[in-house]
Write a structure and sequence with these properties.
Blueprint (H helix, E strand, L loop, with lengths): L8 H15 L6 H8 L3 H8 L2 H24 L4 H17 L8 H8 L5 H28 L8 H18 L6 H15 L13
Protein name: TetR/AcrR family transcriptional regulator
Keywords: DNA-binding, Transcription, Transcription regulation
Pfam family, one: TetR_C_13
Length: 204
């Protein structure tokens, strides 16, 4: 009979996320992971598998705790406010990231996905989901008149996705509020109906 695990799986995955997120995939060894997770290397192998398997579990955990949680909180807001709230939080998180770790998903897209077909699919699927969130917001806003219909919803959703990725990458080297907010302001301008009052960023 298998022995029950003597650790909190969510907690050790959170620790694995933090280590991969800060150090990256290639610079992390299974021994590093075991130490970071507070486990023996044998326990890591037995519970999760090799380094690649741990990374996949950690990435899934990160995605659910970040994007999944954020969409759940914002999608019920009015469409234009949902988009703004999404970017408000992204910028605040980027500015409070003292270690400049960036976004683990974006980091994975740059470091791991180019060399691994499975991770290419994982990252692509999540980016499609992010774009889908933006598309749903735009669709709803164009239907109720709170978002301009001068551009196709699909084009606006793609622009929002590319702006998000740009913010996350740029913030790793230039975490400046004025700069990051300046990237999204013109995009919000594209969303706003003609004659509407401009949405302003809250003063921190």
């Amino acid at each position: 009979m298998a022995r029950p695990r003597e650790f909190d799986e969510a907690k050790v995955l959170e620790l694995a996320v933090e280590h991969f997120w800060e150090r990256g995939y290639e610079a992390t060894s299974i021994r590093d992971l075991a130490q970071a997770m507070g486990l023996t290397t044998a326990s890591v192998y037995n519970a999760f598998g090799d380094k690649r398997a741990v990374y996949r579990r950690a990435l899934d955990f990160y995605i659910e705790r970040s994007f999944g949680d954020r969409v759940g909180r914002f999608e019920s807001k009015p469409p234009l406010l949902a988009v703004k709230a999404f970017f408000d939080e992204i910028i605040d998180r980027s500015l409070s990231d003292v270690k400049r770790k960036g976004c683990m998903l974006v980091n994975s897209a740059l470091e791991v996905a180019p060399h691994d077909e499975e991770f290419q699919r994982v990252v692509a699927e999540v980016l499609v989901q992010v774009e889908g969130f933006f598309r749903r917001c735009v669709d709803r806003g164009q239907e109720d008149g709170t978002i301009s219909n001068r551009q196709a919803a699909s084009d606006l959703a793609g622009t929002l996705l590319s702006t998000l990725l740009g913010i996350r990458v740029l913030a790793r080297t230039r975490p400046e509020r004025k700069l990051l907010e300046g990237l999204i302001k013109p995009v919000l301008g594209l969303l706003e109906p003609v004659g509407s009052s401009r949405l302003e960023w809250a003063v921190p």
